[in-house]
Structures
1.
Amino acid sequence: MNWATRRPHTIVALADSLPLFHTAPCRDLAAAYLALQAAEDGRLPAKSRLDVTALARAVPHLLLCAITRPDKCIYRVVGEDVKSRIGNRSGRNYYDLVPAERRATAMQVMNMLVDVPCAWRIEIEQSFSGGVRRPVEALALPLASTQAGVDGFAVLANCEIGHGERASLFGVTLLGTNVLRRDLIDIGFGVDETFEDLVPAPE
């Protein structure tokens, strides 16, 4: 496969990002994070400060990953809806599941959650066996770590666009993911304006 780079679609402040979201779980997570940051006087919130009881309808769509630079992003929590699409990846390193050509880009985009720190929103297309394709929206936000050996955490909402209107994925296998759009989100510390996604080149 031939690859091409793609700049983020837009750079936006978190407070201005809510109109971008197509799915309620991503919107709910963004709003809850805004409230948490306000309570923390703009500081980067710690993982222990995230209250999932305020995210009832988002919980099945949430993931929590522990990031240790440069090459570890371990799934700690995988919501039930996400499991139904990609399987239970708890305890696995996300980078081990990324095609070799895209691995460096995947590390860069996850590590910048910790390094900057910033957030991002993506629209992706997931491809499954049997020719099934599904559009998905995801939001990734950083959380500070107080845990030895973990540089930071990422909490993500990951939800099908049009969730609840599609047939079951029972018996099919996730084959790949293509990034259709990425928005970088400034949570008060700037963004990495040099970042580019690696995507399949147009045929």
2.
Amino acid sequence: MRSASFSVFLINSAAVVLALVIYQLGGRDHFGERGFITFLSTFQLLAIALIADKILQVKKRFGGTYSPPKLWLWRTLSWGFIFLAADEFLSIHEVTDLLIHDLLNLQETNLTDRIDDIIVALYGTGGIWLLWNSRDELKWHPSAIALFKRAFILLFFMVGLDMFANEQDLLKLFFAPSTASTMQRHIEHLEDSFKVFAEAFFILAFYSILRDSKSRAKKLAPVD
């Protein structure tokens, strides 16, 4: 597990530092759309979906030994993270924001422009609700629970930062317009950094569950 943790955090740290260095040297902002941070995030979400599917397959092999595993949970999580990967790459929540404005004929304001942030917060809230309602399934994986907590903390920090820095309206209450613009950019970079590290914690949480599940399946396998 230590090796996996080191590798995951090394990759994410290196990506964030590289993106910051490139930006500071006057290059492209890779935290923006189609920057390599977006590709890293998409890849990590797909990796989580794959691990969730592997957990599903392993749990099928020893269902009912202690209590029947909630196979629907792992199937839902797998498909859910595939959707989140598509959202990350195609900006579905931002398109949904625009669609809501069009359908409801809303005039875009600093408040309504935060609808996309609310959608992301709802993703996180839905994830917490799903895991909480399946806590009897997760009780077999205590180490993963701590990792999930860290992931969700970073996720909601990310949403909070995005809401705060959006459109600079709140920043201009505390800073001059030119300073607010610079602060907004730095906060956006911090926000995206929180995002990829939240995904790193999710990867490790699911990987921990997969390891636990494989270990139990091996113990319960019939001896020839």
3.
Amino acid sequence: MYITSVRARGFADLDDFTAGDLGRVVTIAGPTPQTTALGDAVQLAFAALSPVALLDLLQRWDLGTLEQPPEVLGEPFPDQAVWVDAGAARAIVGPDRTLQVEVDLHLDPPLYGELRRQAAREPRLVTALASGGQLRLGVGALFNRSLDAVALSIDRLAVGDVPISEADRARWADRLLRRVAERLHRFRPVATGAQAALAALTSRDRLDAYQAWSEALLPDGPRLRVVAGPGGKTGILADERPLARWGRRVQEQAALASAIHLESADILWAETELDDFAAAVEGASSPLEQVFVVRTNGALTVESVDRPQRPTTPLPTTLRTTPAPSPTATA
């Protein structure tokens, strides 16, 4: 699965931006606050489908503290989150307090096959699938006035131009969305990937992924190996030397190799000057379907366009009262 177009609206650093005809490797000129906001928008589209993914995004935004992390409510899709400190949210959301993201997704064969099975019961889907069967997903996030809570909503879901109704969602589309939620990974250079490597090594089904990660830096770099150290601490050896002894660039290469081979995602967002991503998306056995790379010589420039008129109607959702660490104000 990969993204063919994305639109982001309402971010403090990206008021309105659209990019279409996206390929398998998308290079973006940056990093800038605008490219970070675009990465936030892409991540929000998937985070609205998973409480775990939403918590990861809120923590990336520095909402909450170590003692009181954000609280995410709602299953299977999150509908609200609250946190204790409103200050960080001011750097995320614009004056409307509303973030809106829409993505078009080209589905992989397993997900497309799910739609084909539903088309046998839903004649409306037959035409949509004949025209390509892209899944259009629109999500929204409405912050309250005190900026210590947010309400999430799935605002649009369609196959091609055929909207999926609430009844269809309840019967089969929600299962599809839960599978979509796992398809994005956002690279963190500070993460070594040791835990992911250990999980792959000890999984009967992930040994091929572990082997690919182990050899990812060859032939010019070291071979990687995960080890258990004192006290059960997991570490990585590179040519049998601690990874930290190799310096920053090799550590970043190892972390990126973990993101590519061990995270089980289709789409990777990475801010890095490393540029050898073609092999990661080419071929039937490639570990990824799409990579967004933010680097100084990127081709796509991310800039807002002026919106002549801001929306005056908030998202169709309200924040509910909950025993959170901070009082929840109504939107």
